[in-house]
Amino acid sequence: PKELFSTNARMIIQPGVYNVTREQMIFLEPLVFDGKEYAITQERMYDYDSGQDPLSRYVQVKSSSSRKDDLVGYSDSTYVENVNDDFRCDMMVSMENYNRVLYRDTFVIARGVVNPLRFLEYEIPGSAVKNENFFPQPEMQLRDTKGDVNLTFRVNKSDLNLTDGDNREELNRLISRLHQVENDPNARLKSFSIAGTASPEGNYERNKQLAQKRMASAMSLIVKELNESTRRQIDMHTTASVETWDRVVDLLRADNKIREADAIQEIIDKYPDNPNRQSRNVVSLPFYRPLITSRYLPRLRRVSYELLFSQYRYLTDEEIEALYRSDSASLSRNEFWRLYNLADSIAEREAICRRALEVYPKFLVAATDLAAILIDKGEPDSELLLPYLEMPELPDETRLNQVVAWLSAGRYAQADSLAFDLPDTGIYHKAKVYAAALNGRYNEVMQEISAESPFNEVLMLLAIKSNEQAWEKAKLLGNSAKEEYIKAVAANRVDEVVLALSYLESAFKKDPSLRDVASVDGDVLDLLQQED
User: Are strands 187-198 and 150-151 parallel, antiparallel or unpaired?
Assistant: First the structure.
């Protein structure tokens, strides 16, 4: 108004969209309105270089008579996130002359967000990666492996008789294993050792010498089967020992022969440090033959081997599960993937994916499947897949899960943009449709969404501001809390205020949480004031 303005004044109007919920202000472009004299003074002050004035690009100079009011047009827009928050539009106004601020005020010109599609009903499940080209490939890992074999010898004999018992079969199995490792380019023999044990009857020193000879005999047979190059590289050694009578006592007790066990234990206790005296006294026991000699002593004469070699191979499922529990950081991507697919529960799968991403932060398939799990749990994470979106090749499921997460977070513009790259089929098409609707491209998807339910049809009519048609359709809806609320919105749009208040009150009674929605809904804020 001309009464508030003079030719030597400047008025600055600064609009801002304020997120009340998060206490964040988004400033729009200011508008600067100068009187004629003020504008001339500014030009002189800056030596006619208006670029020195940081507000110059926003300046409009009053061109009408000082006795006339002015209507100044203004238009601007901004993107906001979290559209379910409480917003208001503030206008900060200041007028000054050359010396002082003449006038300053801030007032609210709008409150709440008009967004009937906040109630849009749709269901887009999370999607796990199906394209096997994105699955991690198996990786061989270098692992140590051990083996064992048992050979038996005749009493007081050091030569290995291959006709006795299973000696031939056991030795052939050992030699076959050696050749298998020796001929595997992905394996490397590290050491080969033989441990031999003699039974305790007779002289201890002679028994120990017998055990050593047995080791040498067995090693000689085995070494002949190895290549010369392998024999030079491999670490080979033998260990000989004599079993004690304590072991015989243990075997007797295991067979519930307590009296015999006690008799031998009494001898051991009497001569604890003299194995030769123990042996002579045990031999004189009445049950020594044939019980001890035929049943127990043969079990104490044995030879075993340990073959230690490193081999690049695939781990078994059991090894992967054990390693996950003890040292999960050493698992490969494929091993995490196998473990994930073996898991019985959703909770286990989620935990495995999270651990896999800790070890391999760029594990695309694990991240995509975790995003799908969270969507199906009703806990979509809009940040999880962001690091992967710039990858040159991306499975459609990754984009789909991100679109769903962004829609849940109210980031409709980003969701709609990403959905553009999705196939136009099945669940992907549905995501594209709802992303377009929530991003404001109503007319493109109006018919398709309206066909899904009467409730969605009313929401779409409200979105395109077909208020009369929306009201007619809304009157046919059911009586759930959300339907009553939308009836209130539609009624208020066509100035059926009494009905709108009635519907709103009914909605609040059925679902008190809707009052929080109404407090930020520009469609019903005026009704709330009347209700109060």
Answer: unpaired
